[in-house]
Amino acid sequence: MSQEQKQGGRKKGSPSALSLWFQRKMNARTTGKVRRKGGKYLGMDLLILHTTGRRSGVARETPITWFADDDGWLVVASGGGKRDPDWYVNLMAHPEQAAVEVHGSPAVPVTPHRLAGDDHAQAWQHITGQQPRYAKYQQKSAREYPVVRLARK
Questions:
Q1: Which residues are registered as beta bridge partners of 52?
Q2: Which Gene3D superfamilies does its entry note (predicted)?
Q3: Is 37 a member of any domain?
């Protein structure tokens, strides 16, 4: 019997149905607060990222921290350090369907660009200059956090 069969069809380390349900409830709650408060929540600037589920095809809305960039918005796919967050995997699977809401404005279609090399390094320096906790999070993880630029279409 494989490890996946032992866990009821889930891969080792993947979230349970209960944790996914809880995460979606918390995302919906936080999304409502972000819309009411104009993008500020717990002292952070949040945007609402619109993606489409990579397997389900269901529209998803995820509140995430963003950082200003000349070409759009920068977001970090930290996912708690262990794995890519669902929003990131969905975004990369269906980049043509991505949009963002910022400060209560209507959703704006965006094109995601995963940064690499010097672009990643420069963006990472900008991000950690504004939020040093990201550098601390990165030090605790074996994987390099993806940084994505969300550029207006």
A1: 59
A2: Electron Transport, Fmn-binding Protein, Chain A
A3: yes
